[in-house]
Amino acid sequence: MLSLIKKIKEYNIALWVDGDKIKMSFGEASPAPELIDEIRENKPQLIEFLSKHTIFSEAAFDHFNISDTSAETANAGQENDIDAIFPATSLQQGLVFHFLSNPTDDAYRVQLIVDYRTKLDIDKYQEAWKCASLKYPILRTAFDWEEEILQVITKKPGITKANFSFRDLSDLTEDERELKIAEIQEEDRKVPFDLSRPGLIRFTILKLEEALFTVVRTEHHSISDGWSGGFLLHTVHQFYNALIRGEKPVIEVETAYLDAQKYYLEANKNITSFWEKSKAEFELANDVNMLFNHRINLDQQKSVEHPGELSVQFEGNGYSQLKDTCRNLGVTLNVAVQFAWHLLLQRYTRDEQTIVGTTVSGRDIPVPEIETSVGLYTNTLPLAVNWKKDASIREMLHEVQEKSAALNSYSSVSLASLQKHGDRLFHSICAYLNYPDVVSDATDQKGIEYTISLRKAVEKVDYPVMLRAHDSGQRLLLELKYGKNWIGEERAAALLEQVQFILNAVGTNPEQTTDQVSLINDAQREILLQKWNQTDVFYPFERTLQELFEQQVIANNDKVAVVHGKSSLTYGELNARANRL
Fold first, then answer.
1. What's the CA angle centered on 238, arms 235 and 242, to 5 degrees?
2. How many Å apart are CA 259 and CA 531, to the nearest integer?
3. I want to staple 484 with a disulfide (CB 3.0 to 4.6 A). Which of 43, 165, 306, 465 is the partner?
């Protein structure tokens, strides 16, 4: 099969799978008839091969590297290449299921686009990433799902030169470069990963100027989370700086990730017991259609085809008061944001219980150095809040905090195992980004880490609506992610404004009941209570009904006044008939 694929590539033909069909594209010259016959004769084998390597688009075929597959085949079955095997974590299981059921969906392809304002040594940059893959077991991880879903951690580097591609854009104008970078980033998102092979990360290095490079990094969410990102990039930069100095990087293999997998196995009984009690309390998922401009079938909505995003800054006195109140009450800003989203959902649905997918770090486990480990520890789990009549904001904040802490301690659970009949427990997510700052070891500020700047981070989720918050220390960034098909920008802005109203209420008066929290401002209240209620109009009491009608006849003599069935009368005709009485 590889020889046929090689021949197809030599003829500049692209093949990919679309359902039970093979699609093809080629240049100006048509393929030779004998090659078309060979493709037709081998159609079943080609579909199997292309599907196995997740080639579901033209871009995926272009990225497919035959030499990698040949090496994989040669190495297959060599047991000494395997370092460890563990069951996939709960979130990894969900991501593999999503991949198998929606192989072309780009929901869990995470992208980071950065600029380096230096003359990047590409060979050393690639070597630094290779060293990082030897340090961190997760970067050498593949998945096997023949029976149960397993993590297979290999010994060889998970990142090699095959994970990189290079483009020189230095001949383009600045505007042309920007358009090309956006195009490359979008095209790269379309290329799926083969989860059965390690190295679920790839890089496109773009040369813009002699001392300006852009790196488009795309990885599958199954191998990392946002918390890990800073530590991983810090390690890569350390290795790169050492290579630039002519030193051999010292690679100390991280043990925390493997220790965490062992802990999950040992703690499985306690985790299962906790969730058995919790899921008995779950009611039906809230109908978040109440937040939307247009209703959708929530049970059928498994992906967001046209993602939208809107953000606002919660700052000034409101932000300061919120932080002070949270500190005085002994709760975190995360808890305040979770409370705000739950209350907003409760107001729209009027449900007695709200269930929201809550993102937890998953690092509250007794494993040394877990805080700096690289891997997928985060999970999105159901946080259920039961609304009590006359409960104060303060009471509800403490309930949310207590339940959030429990989620983090028992985070290693499969979301699918908590669902009844496979139905979703929640249709919205609330995530609070609280990633630690990673400080450079360099004292002379000459390392590559001092030349980097973030261009863009791209991550798409498969839930209809998501609130994400990040505290910068001076303000709280609130981002709403949604599907443009069901939420317009005006509605998104209104929802974010209402979240801020609730946060203001938390900061100014936490003793008020949740029912007293207003979702409108003073100006909106004035419109509702005064202007919209001013329905009184002038009525000429000195005139009779007959006189008022005759006034309408003069003004609208030829216009239709009354309709019955297929017959109609104008004001003039109706007046003439009335005068006969």
1. 145
2. 65
3. 306
Q: Which residues pair with 360 in a beta bridge?
A: 379
SS3 361: coil
Residue 220: what are its φ and ψ, rounded to 5°? -85, 140
**Six-digit token string for 543:** 């005139």
> Is 50 exceeded by the pLDDT of residue 77?
no
pLDDT beyond 60 at 70: no
Question: What does the pLDDT look like over 509-539, one tens digit per residue?
Answer: 999 999 999 998 776 666 656 655 666 655 5
- Tens-place pLDDT, residues 126-171: 999 999 999 999 999 999 998 889 999 999 999 999 999 999 999 9
Closest CA to 240 of 453, 455, 440: 440
Question: HSE of 572 in the Cβ direction (CA atoms, 13 Å)?
Answer: 6
**C-alpha dihedral (257, 262, 265, 268), degrees to nearest 10:** -70
pTM above 0.85, yes or no: no
With contact defined as beta carbons under 8 Å apart, do 275 and 418 qualify?
yes
pLDDT at residue number 534:
61
Residue 440 CA to residue 442 CA, distance in Å, equals 5
In the numeric block, which tokens belong to residue 522?
């003073």
Q: How far, rounded to the nearest angstrom, does the alpha carbon of residue 398 sit from its chain's CA centroid? A: 28
Sign of CA dihedral 454, 158, 74, 44: negative
